[in-house]
């Protein structure tokens, strides 16, 4: 059935004629394809712009939340003051609520140590309570009937909880269950497609399917943002949070300008009172029950998967022995910083962030306090490396983080961050054999980070298949190692001989007439490992 030449859209209710006055007071757009395009773009911005302010500009999570909360409150006030739907104001409110909703969940997880599982349950309850209160008060949940202040208040409260719930759900599946954002995106896309089929083919209620899709587009947008912003080495397109945010904000602006001029998203009709009240029908209740069963079944499956996934860590209560990879990455980053190579240092920062997020589901349950302490130092490292080119400042922050990592990995009880001065002793006093072991320091030989950097550079070239450049780079190692022999060998002849043997092996592999990429890689990894012990 059509009205005024237009078909009801996904989540659009069957419309009936209303007065011109009520047309003018409608505060939300018609649900067209442009609605969903902008919605996904907004959710992506919610993910990337929050990261841009928090990490790239170094504002930190708390200050970012205060700034975006204030901006959202101001724009929401303006939205309430308008007497009709204004595309620019409405969609600016959605952009800001997407960022703020993301930050609400992030603050709960990172600053309040609330588990993602708890966040999902909490926001589900809050969203359900909002819908119940909305329906009991207004007898409808239709977004085509937002023409009073009370209904608009319920509407924006529901929108806020959908973004917070979508963030928590997406992060739970991607991080805590370690499925990653790409796979999570495909899972969410499949559920959205199923919801569309339920509406289109099986005639499920449009209001019900609309709100389900509205929640699910949040993790879909986050997965898209993660794919675009992550470096190519981690399976993304390498655009970064800044470029991704600019692209999507520009796209939102263009689409909003188009709909402002074309007026294609204006609601010209509102469904009748009888149509609004169909939400009380038996059929609607059955559909809610059916969708609830589907989501409960999905939740049960996820719970079983999580239980199976965590069996291997059930008997662990700390992170001892779990952090060697992160120590190695930070050591490499430190070497690049000391060499004033911030391009490679930031690439390593991307690797650190990606690896830490992907292993959160495994590491965090083992010891919440240790994980939180390390996560805090990682935030400082990422902010420092991405916002400054001061080697001394970055080195100090990395040294502090490494000291926390090393103590935790070694099983030392005190896992709280230490002062910069104490952490710097690990690296700045190579002659002191009493300093604690680190990934860049052989206790008996002192600071070997410069040699590790050369070997890591060579390994990167080998991984790229550029063996010719790797041969050239390894000459620097041979020269530097020979020059340092008179200083290093007297400190610990046994250790020096061991490392010297690994260097001889990798030189032989690289200088062979037909070098093997896998052989060169193994030799380099063995030598790096020997230096780090």
UniProtKB/TrEMBL annotation:
<feature type="transmembrane region" description="Helical">
    <location>
        <begin position="179"/>
        <end position="199"/>
    </location>
</feature>
<feature type="region of interest" description="Disordered">
    <location>
        <begin position="408"/>
        <end position="442"/>
    </location>
</feature>
<feature type="compositionally biased region" description="Low complexity">
    <location>
        <begin position="428"/>
        <end position="442"/>
    </location>
</feature>
<feature type="transmembrane region" description="Helical">
    <location>
        <begin position="153"/>
        <end position="173"/>
    </location>
</feature>
<feature type="transmembrane region" description="Helical">
    <location>
        <begin position="85"/>
        <end position="104"/>
    </location>
</feature>
<feature type="transmembrane region" description="Helical">
    <location>
        <begin position="284"/>
        <end position="306"/>
    </location>
</feature>
<keyword id="KW-0812">Transmembrane</keyword>
<dbReference type="InterPro" id="IPR007136">
    <property type="entry name" value="DUF347"/>
</dbReference>
<dbReference type="Pfam" id="PF03988">
    <property type="entry name" value="DUF347"/>
</dbReference>
<protein>
    <submittedName>
        <fullName>Uncharacterized membrane-anchored protein</fullName>
    </submittedName>
</protein>
<feature type="transmembrane region" description="Helical">
    <location>
        <begin position="116"/>
        <end position="137"/>
    </location>
</feature>
<keyword id="KW-0472">Membrane</keyword>
<feature type="transmembrane region" description="Helical">
    <location>
        <begin position="206"/>
        <end position="225"/>
    </location>
</feature>
<feature type="transmembrane region" description="Helical">
    <location>
        <begin position="237"/>
        <end position="264"/>
    </location>
</feature>
<feature type="region of interest" description="Disordered">
    <location>
        <begin position="513"/>
        <end position="533"/>
    </location>
</feature>
<keyword id="KW-1133">Transmembrane helix</keyword>
<feature type="transmembrane region" description="Helical">
    <location>
        <begin position="57"/>
        <end position="78"/>
    </location>
</feature>
<feature type="compositionally biased region" description="Polar residues">
    <location>
        <begin position="409"/>
        <end position="427"/>
    </location>
</feature>
């Amino acid at each position: 059935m059509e009205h005024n030449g237009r078909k009801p859209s996904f989540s659009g209710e069957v419309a009936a004629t209303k007065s011109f006055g009520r047309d003018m007071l409608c505060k939300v757009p018609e649900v067209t394809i442009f609605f969903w395009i902008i919605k996904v773009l907004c959710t992506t911005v919610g993910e990337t712009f929050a990261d841009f302010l928090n990490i790239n500009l170094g504002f930190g999570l708390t200050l970012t939340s205060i700034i975006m909360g204030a901006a959202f409150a101001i724009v929401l006030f303006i939205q309430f003051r308008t007497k009709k739907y204004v595309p620019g104001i409405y969609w600016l409110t959605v952009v800001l609520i997407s960022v703020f909703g993301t930050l609400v969940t992030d603050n709960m997880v990172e600053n309040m140590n609330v588990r993602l599982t708890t966040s999902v349950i909490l926001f589900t309850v809050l969203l359900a309570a909002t819908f119940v209160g909305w329906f009991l008060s207004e007898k409808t949940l239709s977004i085509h009937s937002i023409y009073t202040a009370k209904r608009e208040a319920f509407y924006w409260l529901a929108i806020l909880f959908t973004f917070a719930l979508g963030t928590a759900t997406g992060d739970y599946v991607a991080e805590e269950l370690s499925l990653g954002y790409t796979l999570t995106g495909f899972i969410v896309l499949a559920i959205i497609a199923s919801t569309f089929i339920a509406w289109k083919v099986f005639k499920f209620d449009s209001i019900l399917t609309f709100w389900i899709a509205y929640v699910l587009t949040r993790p879909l947008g986050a997965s898209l943002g993660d794919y675009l912003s992550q470096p190519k080495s981690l399976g993304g397109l390498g655009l970064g949070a800044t470029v991704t945010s600019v692209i999507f904000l520009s796209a939102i602006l263009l689409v909003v300008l188009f709909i402002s001029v074309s007026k294609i998203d204006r609601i010209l009709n509102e469904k009748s009172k009888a149509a609004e009240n169909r939400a009380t029908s038996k059929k609607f209740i059955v559909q809610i029950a059916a969708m609830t069963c589907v989501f409960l079944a999905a939740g049960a499956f996820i719970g079983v998967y999580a239980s199976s996934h965590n069996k291997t860590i059930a008997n662990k209560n700390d992170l001892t022995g779990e952090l060697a990879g992160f120590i190695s990455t930070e050591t490499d980053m430190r070497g690049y910083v000391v060499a004033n190579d911030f391009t490679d240092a930031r690439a390593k920062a991307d690797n650190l962030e990606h690896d830490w997020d992907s292993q959160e589901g495994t590491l965090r349950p083992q010891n919440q306090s240790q994980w939180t302490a390390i996560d805090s130092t990682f935030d400082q490292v990422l902010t420092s490396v991405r916002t400054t080119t001061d080697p001394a400042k970055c080195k100090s922050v990395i040294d502090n983080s490494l000291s926390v990592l090393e103590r935790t990995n070694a099983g030392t009880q005190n896992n709280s961050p230490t002062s910069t001065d104490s952490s710097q002793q690990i690296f700045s006093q190579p002659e002191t054999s009493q300093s604690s072991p680190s990934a860049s320091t052989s206790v008996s030989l002192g600071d070997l980070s410069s040699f590790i950097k050369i070997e890591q550079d060579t390994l990167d070239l080998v991984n790229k298949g550029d063996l010719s450049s790797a041969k050239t780079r390894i000459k620097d190692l041979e020269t530097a190692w020979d020059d340092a022999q008179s200083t290093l060998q007297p400190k610990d002849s046994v250790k020096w001989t061991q490392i010297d043997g690994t260097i001889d092996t990798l030189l032989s592999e690289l200088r062979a007439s037909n070098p093997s990429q896998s052989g060169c890689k193994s030799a380099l990894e063995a030598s790096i490992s020997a230096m780090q012990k």
